[in-house]
Amino acid sequence: MIVEERRYSFQPGKLQVFLQRYAEQGMAVQRQYLPHLLGYYVSEVGPLNQITALWGYPSFSAREQWRAALFADPRWTAFLHEVRPLMTQQECRILKAAPFFEQTLANLLKTDLLPGEDNETSIPQP
After folding, report:
1. FRET partner for 95 with CA separation of 20 to 30 A, picked from 1, 3, 11, 37?
2. Cβ(21)–Cβ(83) under 8 Å?
3. Helix, strand, coil percent content, the chain, rounded in steps of 5
4. Is the CB of residue 36 less than 8 Å from the CB of residue 112?
5. What SUPFAM superfamilies does its record include (predicted)?
């Protein structure tokens, strides 16, 4: 199991615009393909105008498959076309759970599965 940490930095004054557009347009589409949202955070101290999202995946191959399906959806690409000009930087890190946390992460990922889904390869359907 892996966790993807995605960090987005925004132009001053544009973070709230992004959050509103994401809540209204992007989140529902993204969650259809990426069901394991572990957290979505706004910076309060340190570098400001940043969002950090944590996404859980059963494997790197599941991540690749699920994200490919997301980017094939025209609603998602239209959303990105709208919000990318608000961003100044994007960062992505893939994190592997420490041995003592692997089972906890596995349990977190299982709770988001739909009945009949295979945790390793099922691509959530819109």
Report:
1. 11
2. yes
3. 45, 25, 30
4. yes
5. Dimeric alpha+beta barrel
In sign, the C-alpha dihedral spanning 75, 77, 83, 85 is negative
Angle, helices 60-71/74-83, rounded to nearest 10 degrees: 80
Give the span between the Cα atoms of 8 and 51, in whole angstroms: 5
Beta strands, E only, 23-86: 37-42, 50-57
Give the chain's domains with CATH numbers. Answer: 2-110 (3.30.70.100)
Q: How far apart are CA 56 and CA 109, in angstroms?
A: 7
Angstrom distance (rounded) from CA 123 to CA 67: 9
In angstroms, the CA 105 to CA 34 distance is 16
Mean pLDDT across 82-94 = 97
Report yes or no: 55 and 6 within 8 Å, Cβ to Cβ.
yes
Summarize pLDDT for 24-47 with one digit per residue, the tens: 999 999 999 998 999 999 999 999
Q: Report the alpha-carbon distance of residue 62 to residue 68 in Å, rounded.
A: 10
pTM score: 0.81
